[in-house]
Amino acid sequence: MLTFPMHNAALDLKGKSPEELPHGLLTVPPEIRELVEEERAKMRPEAFDYNKEDFLNRWTVDWYFDGLGYEVMYRPSPDGPEVLAVGSDETFALKKAAPLEKRPDVKTYLGY
Amino acid sequence: MSRLAIPVAGKTLYATGDIKLRAEVTLSVRDGGGQFVDHKFVVDTGTEVTTIPAYDAKQLGLYVPPRPANIRHEQTGLEVRSGMLAFRVVGMDQTLYAVPCFFLGDPDAAPTPNAPPGSLPRKLLQPFALLDVLKFSTDKDPASIAAPHGELVIEKR
Predict the structure, then answer these.
(1) How far is CA A76 from the centre of its chain?
(2) Smallest Cα–Cα separation from B5: which of B27, B28, B25, B29?
(3) How many A-B residue pairs are in contact by the CB < 8 A criterion?
(4) Cα distance between residue B49 and residue B121, in whole Å
(5) Is A41 in a helix, a strand, or coil?
(6) Whose CA, among A50, B17, B60, B152, lies 20 to 30 Å from B129?
(7) pLDDT tens by residue, A86-98
(8) Selection from A26, A31, A28, A22 nearest residue A1 by Cα
(9) Cβ–Cβ gap B11/A58 under 8 Å
(10) Are A72 and A109 in contact (CB under 8 A)?
C-alpha cells in the first residue's frame, strides 16, 4: 500500500542542467510499479491491459522529471522508457535530425 | 470533417496522492523557414493567451521582437514578447491555423535549471482563440479502453 507524500527522484534532481539529468533506459521505481498495479483495480481488464505500458513509461518519466520544467523525449518499452533528449537544445536537435513522421514511436513529456 | 480525440492523461501528485488531469495536443509549428516542427502543448483555457518559451521561438526562427513589452507575465514574472504562432494540428488535416502568442522569458538564454518551477515558461494553448475554426469538447465514454479519464475532442468547423 502506497503512502503519501512520496519522495520522487525529481526532487533530488532540481537545479541540474538538462545534460546532467538521466538519459537512456530509466529504471522503473517500485513505487511506479505499485501505482500501475493500483490502476488494475480501478478499470476493466481490457482497459488496464491497453494502458498498462503507457502508465509504466509515462509515469516513470514523470517520477524523474516532474516539475523540472523540461521537455523530455523518450521511447517507451515494456521494460521502461528510454530517454533520448532533455531540454530545448537536445529536443530541437532530435526533431531536426528526425522529423515527426520518422519517429512515430517517440513520445514527448512536458515536465510542468 | 477532420476530428481528433485526445485522451485525458492522468498522473499522481506525489505529495498528496491526488490525480492530476490534463490534455495535451501536438502542434506542427511553422518555423521561420516555412518548415514544420512538432511541439506538444498543454490545452489550457486558463492561460488567456497561448504561450511558448521565447528561447524556443527563437530556435524556431520566428520573429521575436527585440524589446519585451512593458508588462510582465503575471503567473511567471517573465518578460513578454507578443507574436503569432502558425501551426497544423497533428492528427488532423493540413489546415494551417494561427493564434496570438506570448513568447515568455529571455529569447537568448534557456531557462536556468535553478529557476523556481513557477517561473518556468510553458507551452500552453489557449483554445478559445480558435473557436471560429475549431470546436473543442470533452466527453467520457465508460466503455472506452483508450481514454479511462475521458477525452478532449477537437473538430474542424
Answers:
(1) 8
(2) B25
(3) 78
(4) 13
(5) coil
(6) B60
(7) 999 999 999 999 9
(8) A31
(9) yes
(10) yes
Q: Residues of chain B with pLDDT > 70: what percent?
A: 100
pTM for the structure as a whole: 0.96
Cβ-Cβ contacts under 8 Å for B38 (sequence gap 6 or more):
A95, A100, A108, B26, B27, B28, B29, B90
Closest CA in chain B for residue A107: B40
Residue A111 CA to residue A71 CA, distance in Å, equals 6
Q: Would you mind telling me the total number of residues written for chain B in this entry?
A: 157
pLDDT in tens, B63-120: 999 999 999 999 999 999 999 999 999 999 999 999 999 999 999 999 888 888 889 9
Measured between CA atoms, the residue of chain A closest to residue B28 is A100
Look up cell 514511436; give the residue. Answer: A105
Q: Which residues 54-93 in chain A show a CB within 8 A of chain B? A: 58-59, 62-63, 66-69, 71, 87-89, 92
Helix, strand, coil in percent for chain A, rounding step 5: 45, 15, 40
- Chain A residues with CB under 8 Å of B144 CB are 47
Q: Do residues B117 and B130 make contact, with C-beta atoms less than 8 angstroms apart?
A: no
Q: How far A16 CA sits from the closest chain B CA (Å)?
A: 6
Residue A97 in contact with partner chain B when CB distance is under 8 A: no
Out of A5, A66, A95, name the one closest to residue B37 (CB).
Answer: A95
Q: Is the peptide bond preceding residue A5 cis, with omega within 30 degrees of 0?
A: yes
